[in-house]
Amino acid sequence: MQTLIEKAKKIRLLILDVDGVLTDGKFYFDLAGNEYKSFHAQDGHGIKLLQQTGVSVAVVSGRTSISVEQRMQQLGIQHVYQGYQDKQLALTDIVSQLKINLDEIAHVGDDLLDLPIMTKVGLAIAVNDANDVVKHYADWCTQRNGGQGAVREVCDLIMQSQGHLNAIIKSYTQ
Predict the structure, then answer these.
(1) pLDDT, tens digit, for every residue of 2-13?
(2) What confidence tens digit (pLDDT) does each residue in 107-128 have?
(3) Which residues are paired to 12 by β-bridges?
(4) Residues 161, 162, 166, 170: is their CA dihedral positive or negative?
(5) DSSP classification of residue 15
(6) Residue 59, helix vs strand vs coil
(7) In CATH, what number is assigned to the domain containing residue 60?
(8) Whether residue 1 has pLDDT greater than 70
(9) Cα distance between residue 40 and residue 44, in whole Å
């Protein structure tokens, strides 16, 4: 059986859920019905650093939100799939576009909608406050909750496993 580090070394694509992973899973609405989401700055910086190492990032969400579209544009994430209740359809499209093997993909999820991807990829990850069933299917669980820096933990794990993290840290300390 492969270790966590061995699985993370192979990763060329990180797929993220949004609600409960990139956000805390809470929905905020104003009186006009506008929806607001909160994204953690450390997650965003981790995503940008991971992309600089050559790992692609995609987002697959069961819901659709303008704030998600805006945030993903800010982060330079080109593969954004919103409104996918059947997340496996998005996975099939991503694999076809990027010509990538399933064992080269990591997925971070928090709820049952994420299982169709998590059960097929090389590295399945659940955030700390994920549904217990999802945690059961995960190869690894983060220490932080969704929307609270959990994605940064994942990015750091992949970068460290692939030998990039120390050089990145060094670039900030010189």
Answers:
(1) 799 999 999 999
(2) 999 999 999 999 999 999 999 9
(3) none
(4) negative
(5) E
(6) strand
(7) 3.40.50.1000
(8) no
(9) 7
Please tell me whether residue 13 adopts helix, strand or coil conformation: strand
Number of domains the chain is built from = 1
Mean pLDDT of the chain: 96
CA distance linking residue 117 with residue 41, whole number of Å: 26
- Whole-angstrom CA distances from 24 to 19, 55, 134 are 7, 24, 16
Look at residue 56 and give its three-state secondary structure: strand
Domain that holds residue 109: 4-173
Q: Provide the whole-model pTM.
A: 0.96
pLDDT at 37: 93
Both tokens of 131, joined, read 């549904």
Q: Percentage of the chain surpassing pLDDT 90?
A: 95
Cα radius of gyration rounded to whole Å, the chain: 15
What Å distances lie between residue 157 and 24, 61, 90, 141, 163, CA to CA? Answer: 21, 23, 24, 11, 10
Assigned token pair, 52: 């600089």
Cβ-based neighbours of 172, under 8 Å, separated by 6 or more: none
Q: Is the pLDDT of residue 74 over 90?
A: yes
132: Cβ–Cβ under 8 A, 6 or more apart, which residues? none
